[in-house]
Amino acid sequence: MLSLKNVQVLYDRAIEAVRDVSLDVPAGAMVALLGSNGAGKSTILKAISGVLYQEDGEIVSGAINLEGDVISGQSPRAIVRRGLLQVPEGRALFGTLTVEENLLMGGFTRSRAESHEGLDRVYALFPRVKERRSQIAGYLSGGEQQMVAIGRALMGRPRMLMLDEPSLGLAPQIVDGIFDAIIALNRDDGLTVLLVEQNAQLALQVASYGYIIENGRIVLDGAAEKLRANDDVQEFYLGFSGGERKSMRDVKHYKRRKRWLS
User: What residue ranges define each of the domains in the chain, with the CATH number in brackets?
Assistant: First the structure.
């Protein structure tokens, strides 16, 4: 459904953030994009969504295709109309508007009847959002705001949804509920999902395929089960080495395997 071929992104025409990135997201699949802070994950999503210009970024080579058509260079509005929507890191809600007003903003490309149907769908998926629909969004908890952010994207009736760090800063119980909803959307509705996460263990549990990015380059990819069993991934991303759990701080000599970059 979505395909990136040798995409290179520069900021300020000088700083290379993404280099020769190629990845594929088949229709109906859930694919994970993993990596540490600053690896280039969010830049890739912004390139796909057409919003790099907001940070003086641009795609200088390569192409992004959606269902066989090149979308590189198209406006964000045109990309949304094609059914590709993003839930940004940090939620980016309109803090002074009510929950329902935020949701309706997500359906700006849809008719009034479609917007009402969208509200019903979001409220069925997230009952807590329905309970808070008249409250000011800025006063919601982090988990509630994430539900609203996902719901706002769903109001656009996407065929593909990109999620940027949906678990960031949330309590484990809240994360479980949000990911249950994401899994249901993918499994029951056939919604294609590109999931960007630092929580590699969680992402590889729900995705069928994964890509690992370091310093703007894809260094490893494969089926989620294969990545979970990979020694390097276990050590550097899942926190395991030699059968013992460890954190990144415990890895004194954090060196990526040269074969990853070969």
Answer: 2-83+158-261 (3.40.50.300), 93-157 (no CATH)
